Structures are given as structure tokens and as C-alpha cells.
Amino acid sequence: MSDETPSDEARARENVFDFLDSGQYDVLGAFWVTVQLTVYSAIGSLVWGTILAAMRVSPVPLMRAFGTAYVNVVRNTPLTVIILAASLGLFQTLGITLAGGSDFETIGFRLAVLGLIAYHATFVCEALRSGINTVPVGQAEAARALGLSFFQVLFLIILPQAFRSVVAPLANVLIALTKNTTVAAAIGVAEAAALMKTMIEYESDAIFLVSAMFAFGFVVLTLPTGMLLGWVSKRVAVKR
Amino acid sequence: MTPMSNVSVTKDAAPTAENLVVLDNVNKHFGALHVLQDIDLTIARGEVVVVIGPSGSGKSTLCRTINRLETIDSGTILIDGRPLPAEGRELARLRADVGMVFQSFNLFAHKTVLENVMLGQLKVRRVDKKAAEEKARSLLDRVGVANQADKYPAQLSGGQQQRVAIARALAMDPKVMLFDEPTSALDPEMINEVLEVMQQLAQGGMTMVVVTHEMGFARSAANRVVFMADGRIVEEATPDQFFSNPRSDRAKDFLSKILHH
Ligand SMILES: Nc1ncnc2c1ncn2[C@@H]1O[C@H](COP(=O)(O)OP(=O)(O)OP(=O)(O)O)[C@@H](O)[C@H]1O
Ligand SMILES: [Mg+2]
């Protein structure tokens, strides 16, 4: 929101929300960063989590061992530590910027996405694995008996059914992910929580209002996600 | 144990001399349990063999070793003159040539009936979509479920599902078809519709290994009955010989039980 054209709503609530009028806080912009963090991380977590799950059910012992070790280590590490490790370890020590660039803001964003993916993929993996367990063994046997390869069996028969049975748990991961993007503030990504911290500092007379506003913002992001995926979950459930 | 495989028994479709499936001295353990003991079994092209025996005698295991859903500990299995490959692409190719029909149908639950019958053609045989669909529809017609093509398996009766499963296996143009108790999960009124389809297949010259206790089917369609007990082939005979005049005590005992009920 720029100060030349304050929106009608903002003008109507001038008294209470006057700290928004100054235009020094780009609340929508901050939430937009949150949304971007969430979307990129969600897609990445889904892909990486699926690969991890494939490793954990693969017949190759080395793959299984890697998948198991990765999940158990990363899942039990606090997200803040992972994000800080990405920032301090990858960028500041090793100089890895992920696809170049020197803009601190973009680099921080990319590293945050990387950390979020690394972490949430473990939850996607475990949700998927429980989904795989709901698929009767006969499905895989029938597929193998047709002459499908291991990967074909996994990606054409097992995972499609597994996904359908874990839409609800995956929705929970997505909601947790949305809220966990706030950790990116720790490495200077200007998402919603970072702005909230700044605003609380400078608008200390409106702490509750500021907090409520950001809380509301996250509810607006997560509630429809939960409801939509709840509906999807019922729609795609496999009937046996 | 008298070897019967070289005794020529002919029914509708006379088997040629060529052997399609050969099991030689096959052994298999599940832990300490010796489920298959020195199994020798030869199945000629076009032959229909019914495998019968008490629960736990190893019938399913025998069936499943033929397309390597179960591995074996020793012995050899030849399909059409070639040994069963251990793993990978070769094994997948072989499995495509060996159709399998399960007791619990195992249709792919997230795919329509038509997609079930097309999948193997598209992904294993790599035929184009149009040809696959055409073939799938004609096979579904042949097993009498053409009008169910766009439904999901759960919407079909057990008998219909099993007929779709047969169509799915046939779509691969298998050299041999394995049936593991294809009618034992079905309500009585649906058993015949499935047996009829199998009967037609047998008459059409398909090589078949059928684990079943349906004596009517064995009598009318089988060239040979193989009786198993405790992991061994105890007796092999023509259906008439076996049902009216079993030689081994195990077979007599078993038949008296299933005939009674
Ligand atoms: N995967 C397995 N692991 C351990 N034991 C097994 C396994 N599969 C089968 N068995 C055992 O091997 C023996 C033979 O089993 P199999 O299923 O081949 O018998 P079956 O003749 O088909 O019996 P049924 O008529 O009940 O189907 C049984 O004692 C069974 O408990
Ligand atoms: Mg069995």
C-alpha cells in the first residue's frame, strides 16, 4: 500500500489503524512474501518428500538407509537450526548463493525455501509412507505380475493411491509449513513475522492490534487451505 | 509318486509336444517351513492343469513361483525354454508373458475398468492408446462386462471384477495364465460366470494352471489334475482318474472331505 492512495477501508478505520496510513509498513507485501515462501516450499517439499518416500520403500538397502537416516535426523532438528545452518553454513561460510545473485534479500529467500523444503519433506515422506501402508499388497503384486517395473509400480499404482489416502495429513503439513515460514525472519527474509516484529517495536501502543492483525492474516491463509483440502480428501478417496 | 507328465492326456485342444512351463526339482522355504519340496512339473503348450490340495499345501506358492512373485531356493523353472530371469527388465518382460489372476481380483482401485485393462498394454507393451483401448473394449466384451468399462472396480460385483481381472491379464497376450483360486472369494451365484470365461479360454487353447477346488471345472476343462499335500506333488492324473479313483491315501482323505461338503 502506498501513501499516495490510501484505500477506502484504511481511511474508514483511520483512528484505530492510523499506523497503517503512514505507508511505512507494507503488510500485504510482507504477507505476499509469506505466500511465496509457502508455495515454493510446498511444491519442493512435495517433490523431495515423494523422492524420500520412494527411497524408504525401495529394494536398494543403501537408498533405504539414506532415506531413514535423513528423515530421522532432519525431522528431529529444530527448523530454526536448519534455516540458520542454510544461511550461515551454505551462504556465509561456503558462499553458496543458489543460482547466483548478490542481493541479500533474494539469497535469504532462496535459502529459507531450501531449509523449509529440507525440513517439511520429512513430514511429507512420513505421511506418504503411512499412505503406502494403506494400499493392499495385492495392488503391487498385480502390477508386478503385469510386468511393470519397480518405478512404474510405485508411481502408477502405489503412490497415486497413497496420495489419495493422505490428503488430510498433507493438509496439516501444509498448514504447519505456512506458519513455519515465519522462521525465515531469522535470516532476514522480510515476510509477515519479520514485519510484525518491526511494527511491534515501533507501534508499541498497538501491540495487541498488530498481533491480532497478523494472526488474522495467517488464519486467512490457512483456513481455506484446510477446508479446501478436506473437501479434496473426500473427493479423491479410493473406494475399495 | 508316479510321473504323469509324459502320459498324454488329450481333451478338446490337443496339447502339442512342446513344453511351455517346466519346474525341475524346485524347493522353497519360508523360514523353517519347507513349502515346496522337490517339485517336478511340466506343462505342455495348450494344456490345462488343475492344482488341488488341502489348505497350506503350497498351491499358491507354486503358482506364484512360476512368475517369480516368490523366489525359489533351488531347482530351475523354464518358461518357453528360457530360465526365469532373476530381476530387472528381463523378469518384467517374462511376467508380461505370464498372466496371473488372483483370488482377491486385485484390480487397480484408482483406475476405471477400461484403464485397468489398458495399463499393461500402454506401459509394458507400449502399444498406442487407440489400439490399447480397442483391444481392452473387445476383451471386456468377451468376458461380458463391456457395459462396465467406465466404472471403478469397487462399483462392480465380485464376479464382474474377476472377469475384468481375466481381461486385464489377457490384454498382455500371455503364453500361460495362472489362476490362484479365482472363484473362492465369490458368492456362489457368481462362480459360474467366472468359470464359464475360464472354460472358454481353455477351449481356445490357452495354457492354464488353475488352483481350484471346483471339480466341475476340473472335470470339464482340465487335462490333468495335480494333487499337492505338505509341499509335495503327491499325485497326478486325469480328472476322471483322480476324482473317481484316487490312488494315494492323502488324496482319498482330501476328496472325501470336499465331496462331503
Ligand atoms: N509369505 C509367507 N511367509 C511365511 N509363510 C508363508 C508365506 N506364504 C505362505 N506361507 C505358508 O506356506 C504354506 C503354504 O502356503 P500356500 O499359500 O502356498 O498354501 P495354499 O496351498 O495356497 O493354501 P490355501 O488353500 O489356504 O490357499 C502355508 O503354511 C503358509 O502359512
Ligand atoms: Mg492359496
From TrEMBL, chain A:
GO cellular component annotations of the record: ATP-binding cassette (ABC) transporter complex
Domain of life: Bacteria
GO MF annotations in UniProt: transmembrane transporter activity
Claim: Cell membrane is one of the keywords in the record: yes
Compartment annotation: Cell membrane
Segment forming the signal sequence: none
Keyword annotations: Amino-acid transport, Cell membrane, Membrane, Transmembrane, Transmembrane helix, Transport
Transmembrane segments: 37-58, 79-101, 107-125, 145-163, 206-232
All residue ranges annotated as the ABC transmembrane type-1 domain in the record: 31-229
Cell membrane in keyword set: yes
PROSITE patterns xrefs: ABC_TM1
Biological-process GO terms, alphabetical: amino acid transport
Membrane topology: Multi-pass membrane protein
InterPro entries named in the record: AA_ABC_transptr_permease_3TM, ArtM/GltK/GlnP/TcyL/YhdX-like, MetI-like, MetI-like_sf
Homology family: Belongs to the binding-protein-dependent transport system permease family. HisMQ subfamily.
Protein name: Amino acid ABC transporter membrane protein 1, PAAT family
Organism (species): Streptomyces pini
Higher taxonomy: Bacteria, Bacillati, Actinomycetota, Actinomycetes, Kitasatosporales
Automatic annotation (TrEMBL), chain B:
Keywords, alphabetical: Amino-acid transport, ATP-binding, Cell membrane, Membrane, Nucleotide-binding, Transport
Catalysed reaction equations from the record: a polar amino acid(out) + ATP + H2O = a polar amino acid(in) + ADP + phosphate + H(+)
Membrane topology recorded in Swiss-Prot or TrEMBL: Peripheral membrane protein
The enzyme's E.C. designation: 7.4.2.1
Superkingdom per UniProt: Bacteria
GO (cellular component) term, any one: plasma membrane
Gene3D superfamilies recorded: P-loop containing nucleotide triphosphate hydrolases
ABC transporter domain: residues covered: 21-255
EC category: translocase
Single Gene Ontology MF annotation: ATP hydrolysis activity
Database matches in Pfam families: ABC_tran
Localization per record: Cell membrane
Homology family: Belongs to the ABC transporter superfamily.
Protein name per its UniProtKB record: ABC-type polar-amino-acid transporter
